[in-house]
Write a structure and sequence with these properties.
The chain is built from three helices and eight strands, in the order αβαββββββαβ. It has helices spanning 5-18, 30-41, 115-121, and strands spanning 23-27, 45-51, 58-63, 77-79, 88-89, 103-108, 111-114, 125-131. The strands form two sheets. Strands 4, 5, 6, 7 and 8 form a five-stranded antiparallel β-sheet that branches. The protein has a three-stranded antiparallel β-sheet with strand order 1-3-2, with helices on one face. The relative contact order is 0.18.
Length: 132
């Protein structure tokens, strides 16, 4: 049993990026699906596919690399709120990652969203992770 599935999700992506893999497979859950959609919408991954043939299901994520320099679009993934220490912020305390170049994923009462979206809606929540 995995005690922190989001940290496992981020670690699998981080390891695949460091090993220069093109595709990574991750066991699925609803929160992982939402994080994957945000990563795709913000341009950090090339594509994704939800495969629900077996019982837990999997997410296949195609990682994005620069065609010439072979650098990944994802340079850093950091888990902020964890099961042992949750990190909640108000609307006026939302973090800025790399002075606005990265994103923070926030779990709010209206679902998962980026820090910029939460700031524009004026709501706070739990800071899940930083991505740059």
């Amino acid at each position: 049993m995995n005690t922190d599935p989001i940290a496992d999700y981020l670690t699998r992506i981080r390891n695949a990026v460091m090993a220069k893999h093109k595709v990574v497979e991750i066991p699925t859950s609803n929160i992982k699906k939402e994080i994957t959609k945000i990563l795709f919408d913000k341009g950090y991954i090339l594509n994704y596919k939800f495969v629900d043939t077996n019982v837990p299901g999997t997410i296949k994520i195609a990682l994005k690399y620069h065609p010439i320099s072979k650098q990944s679009a994802i340079t850093d993934l950091k888990r902020v709120s964890r099961p042992g220490l949750r990190k909640y912020v108000g609307a006026d305390e939302l973090p800025r990652v790399l002075n606005g170049l990265g994103i923070a994923i926030i779990s709010t009462s209206r679902g998962l969203m980026t820090d910029k979206e939460a700031r524009s809606m004026g709501i706070g929540g739990e800071v899940i992770c930083y991505i740059s």
